[in-house]
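Form 12-C: Joint structure prediction
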Amino acid sequence: MDKFKRNERLAVMTQVLTAAPNKIFTLSHFCEMFGAAKSTVSEDAAILAETMRQFRLGTVETVTGAAGGMRYRPMTQQGEGRRFMENVCEMMRAPSRVLPGGFLYFSDILSDPELVSGMGRLFAGEYYDAGVDFVLTMETKGIPVALMTAQALHVPLIIARHSSKVYEGSAVNISYVSGKGVIETMSLSRRAVREGSTALIVDDFMRGGGTARGMLSMLGEFNVKCAGACFVMATESAGVTALEGAKPLMLLGGVRDGAPIQVRVADWVK
Amino acid sequence: MDKFKRNERLAVMTQVLTAAPNKIFTLSHFCEMFGAAKSTVSEDAAILAETMRQFRLGTVETVTGAAGGMRYRPMTQQGEGRRFMENVCEMMRAPSRVLPGGFLYFSDILSDPELVSGMGRLFAGEYYDAGVDFVLTMETKGIPVALMTAQALHVPLIIARHSSKVYEGSAVNISYVSGKGVIETMSLSRRAVREGSTALIVDDFMRGGGTARGMLSMLGEFNVKCAGACFVMATESAGVTALEGAKPLMLLGGVRDGAPIQVRVADWVK
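Section 2 - Result
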């Protein structure tokens, strides 16, 4: 007889798998945990996969091969990502967000754990099979959403700085032209990055694409491939032309005092 | 007859509850989800609570009253937090981490999603009943662990900056003396903080406690109470004297080239 009931095993497997998205757990891991046979755990896995699918809570997959096992991926189902982002857009449209100079206040959204983890899942969902080794962001505002993307992909986050810091060790510094047309510095710790790996760029906002191109050129210095570039928001013009293949969640039209804020969910968000 | 089996309902409840720690879900939420009676869902909840307890995966609690329902708290059991942090200390002791000037490289640890979410759970576990309204950190390195703490507490994260930014709107700026004895500026957006609320300070490192005292004085400007101050690491001397009631996870002794790195888990970590 099994030591634990199926419903107990399923609850525990769900907690363990969803707490570490995209991490592969061997069947043996759960066999030991439950003192159960492989056949039992396999059956549990099949039930769990079907249940997650039915309730649209993500996918539980069996990975075969030497490094095989089970993993959970918090995929967003058709329609859900769009509904989620429509809500965020609605928050963005509050007239009180307009700041002098046509800026929009959305720091609250960029550091809300529930919102950034939802957005991180949307980004991750596009790159599960792209062999991403790490997520790269530029300090400061994009860090929360970049961290949540890294968590969903089960890879580390690496943060580029505006200047070299003594506690980062030796660093590669580059100059780039920011969206505002100003020459800025970007610094990345040499020990943080492994040559020949693959990065995913995640950042908060793209206006002219200058910072994003800076990050691309920084990745080039390390001989690192770029799998893609994700942004919480981009201007309507930048979204199309500034960087090929960029994925902004929201597109921002004009911001003028007194006029409604023009912001919409990007077409790729399903 | 119920539409879904108990093991299916338990898997789904686990996913929903653990994905939003400390958030209260009403029984009705699950009744609607499953088309099940309240008595059925109550029984499910009791089984889930017992299972999580047995496997030491956190607590599932029933909250009574008008705003009542169920919530999941990722509590760390006696001994586990210490084991987890002993591992992190072991990583910290790698001689390759020593930088010129007695600095220690640990940016990789501070932005590893798995490690910072573990540390965030340890911090949150100390403050579940402290009525924390938001987590406050100072840019940049503490942002990941502060975000994960905020997620575990189900509250927003607010980030203080080194200078006013146009996209943060009007801000309160203060001057403070940093751990290095330099006068620095700290800026906090006025619209980010609600007067009379309660904050938890989370940051990466405390040397002399200057930045932490700066954050305390900033909170005073907003008439905000401070529930506590958590740090990934503090120097042995700062850990004891720099700030009353501070909770550093690790205590750092001397760092000298060639000598072993003296770092240990703080006593409060169980």
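Section 3 - Comments
The two ends of chain B are 46 Å apart (CA to CA). Chain B has two domains: 6-73, 80-265.
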